[in-house]
């Protein structure tokens, strides 16, 4: 164990204190939720990083995801040919890759994964897994069945997760709604997991297993943080009850695959649209900030980075330190974590991949901890998506959802950092989970 492992452990409690400072009611603390939530995270961390059988399962999951992605590339190569070749590869006709092209090499995997999830839903595999996690959260943490079900759904799916509790949305408490929004933004969907694996697998071979691990860890973290930020003061209608997922099952598995692939196309187009819009807006804002900031630096003799990413990097620097990132890497990682807030996690993972490829990270633990910290939809774009999406399912709760949005975004960000603390607490340089 290194000093950084203990720092990451302490970071868990520092993040909880930070959440408490922004709590809507600091006098109400549900210790059962906090203790069981941390306990579940630590149990899973020990199982994955310490217990040999857990490590083997982790590596099996990693290899399985990589093989599934390799299968997905068959359709991509058929449709796009040379454009679909990952950087540095050559096809059977001797054609070399044209370089990294997100739209042709990564987005098609989103469509494939979405169709796969559709098939798994039809075969009742996904509902079974979701109910298993929901049962654990409901019974151990004594939460409502509806919020537990939605939180567990977010381990596997994204914007679709609120659909599993659609009949209960109108009657939920404000605390439950905050929990749902926080869980939605603190985790990633399995359909977009392919994005990040493609970006990082060359530099980080076990990235797939870590992303799956992070999504599982972030669910209880989101529950803990959200209940600190907005404690439950009412009595939820589904408190302690087992709620079954609400979803429309297709007539056959082929229909499920077709519907899943169509949903994947919409998701891929949506991601592309968000990147086009937000990256352009961030660039425009950078021009304004740097223009003003340059004059301030000149007048005051400063050397401050006034870009939006630079300013967010300064804000996130202390958080980067407390999650266990060594100071030698903290500046660069803080900038990447900070930019996720405005530029989405897609851009952040791309920048992390570039940083690793350029040997810009000195300590290997920084790669692992950063991977967990970035694993979530905790950014402005998803805030609009989830608030808007859930509002269409429960129009009577638009006012509550819009008021809770930024509180949930803060909660999701802290939950992702808390998950990074757990990874940093158990990771060691000699771990085979680094895969380098």
Question: What is the compact description of this entry?
Answer:
The chain has helices spanning 3-21, 31-49, 52-80, 102-105, 107-122, 125-141, 145-153, 174-186, 190-200, 207-229, 253-300, 308-322, 327-357, 364-374, 380-393, 398-426. It is mostly helical and 436 residues long.
Biggest sheet layout: none
Order of helices and strands: HHHHHHHHHHHHHHHH
Count of helical segments?
Answer: 16
Shape: globular
Give the tally of β-strands.
0
- Tell me the distance between the termini: 19 Å
pLDDT averaged residue by residue:
83
What number of domains? 1
Rounded to the nearest angstrom, the radius of gyration is 21 Å
Helix/strand-derived class?
A: mainly alpha
**How much of the sequence is in beta strands?**
under 5%
Low-confidence segments: none
* Share of helix, binned: over 70%
């Amino acid at each position: 164990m290194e000093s950084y492992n203990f720092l990451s452990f302490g970071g868990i409690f520092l993040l909880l204190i930070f959440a408490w400072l922004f709590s809507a009611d600091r006098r109400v603390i549900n210790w059962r939720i906090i203790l069981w939530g941390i306990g579940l995270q630590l149990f899973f961390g020990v199982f994955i990083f310490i217990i040999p059988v857990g490590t083997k399962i982790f590596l099996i999951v990693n290899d399985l995801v990589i093989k599934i992605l390799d299968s997905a590339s068959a359709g991509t190569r058929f449709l796009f040919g040379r454009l679909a070749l990952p950087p540095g590869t050559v096809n059977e006709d001797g054609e070399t890759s044209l370089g990294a092209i997100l739209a042709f090499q990564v987005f098609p995997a989103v469509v494939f994964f979405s169709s796969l999830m559709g098939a798994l839903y039809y075969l009742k595999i996904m509902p079974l897994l979701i109910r298993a996690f929901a049962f654990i959260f409901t019974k151990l943490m004594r939460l409502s069945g509806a919020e537990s079900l939605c939180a567990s759904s977010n381990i596997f799916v994204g914007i679709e997760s609120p659909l599993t509790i659609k009949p209960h949305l109108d009657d939920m408490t404000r605390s439950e709604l905050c929990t749902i929004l926080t869980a939605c933004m603190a985790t990633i969907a399995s359909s977009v997991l392919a994005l990040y694996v493609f970006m990082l697998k060359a530099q980080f071979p076990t990235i797939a297993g870590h992303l799956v691990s992070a999504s599982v860890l972030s669910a209880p973290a989101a529950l803990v943080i959200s209940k600190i930020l907005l404690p439950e003061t009412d009595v939820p209608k589904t408190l302690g009850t087992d709620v079954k997922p609400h979803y429309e099952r297709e007539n056959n598995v082929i229909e499920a695959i077709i519907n899943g692939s169509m949903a994947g196309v919409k998701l891929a187009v949506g991601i592309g649209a968000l990147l086009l819009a937000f990256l352009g807006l961030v660039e425009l804002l950078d021009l304004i900030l740097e223009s003003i900031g340059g004059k301030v630096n000149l007048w005051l003799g400063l050397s401050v980075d006034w870009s939006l990413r630079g300013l967010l990097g300064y804000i996130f620097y202390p958080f980067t330190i407390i999650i266990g990132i060594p100071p030698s890497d903290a500046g660069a990682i803080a900038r990447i974590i900070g930019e996720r807030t405005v530029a989405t996690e897609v851009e952040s993972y791309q920048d992390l991949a570039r940083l690793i490829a350029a040997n810009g990270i000195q300590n290997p633990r920084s790669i692992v901890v950063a991977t967990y910290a970035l694993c979530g939809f905790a950014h402005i774009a998803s805030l609009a998506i989830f608030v808007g999406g859930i509002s269409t399912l429960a129009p009577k709760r638009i006012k509550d959802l819009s008021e809770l949005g930024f509180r949930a975004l803060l909660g999701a960000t802290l939950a992702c950092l808390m998950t990074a603390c757990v990874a940093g607490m158990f990771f060691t340089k000699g771990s085979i989970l680094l895969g380098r």
